[in-house]
């Protein structure tokens, strides 16, 4: 009985972390939009959506090679987002 509860707590904690990450991403996206560069805003939003999808796939992936691929893709998207928000 305790194991199921621990899994639920872990899931809730991951959900809360992800919601915090999403809120931070939205704040960054708003900052880019305020600067008036619609192309950068589009690219940032595209990267954000792609990262969300890659994270979903990573959560479901069971094969180590696929997990490695998805982790690398997420890292690249994070790098691009950082580059876009830095400018």
Description:
The chain contains three helices and no strands. α2 (about 40-60) packs antiparallel against α3. The N and C termini lie far apart (about 50 Å). The mean pLDDT is about 85. It has helices at about 1-35, 40-60, 65-85. It has one domain (about 1-85).
Looking at this protein, list some descriptive labels.
87 residues, mainly alpha, flat
Task: Determine the structural class based on helices, strands and strand pairing.
Answer: mainly alpha
Write the H/E string, N to C: HHH
Count up the domains: 1
User: What spatial form do the alpha-carbon principal axes imply?
Assistant: flat
- Strand content is under 5%
- Number of helices in the DSSP assignment: 3
* Helical content (DSSP H or I, runs of 4+): over 70%
Strand count: 0
Short description:
The protein is 91% helix and 0% strand.
SSE diagram, text form:
Elements: H1 2-34, H2 38-60, H3 64-86
Helix pairs in contact: 1-2, 2-3
């Amino acid at each position: 009985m305790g194991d199921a509860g621990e899994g639920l707590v872990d899931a809730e904690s991951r959900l809360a972390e992800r919601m915090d990450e999403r809120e931070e991403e939205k704040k960054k996206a708003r900052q880019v939009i305020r600067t008036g560069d619609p192309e950068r805003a589009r690219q940032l939003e595209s990267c954000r959506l792609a990262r969300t999808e890659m994270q979903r796939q990573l959560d479901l992936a069971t094969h180590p090679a696929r997990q490695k691929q998805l982790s690398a893709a997420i890292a690249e998207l994070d790098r691009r987002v950082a580059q876009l928000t830095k400018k």
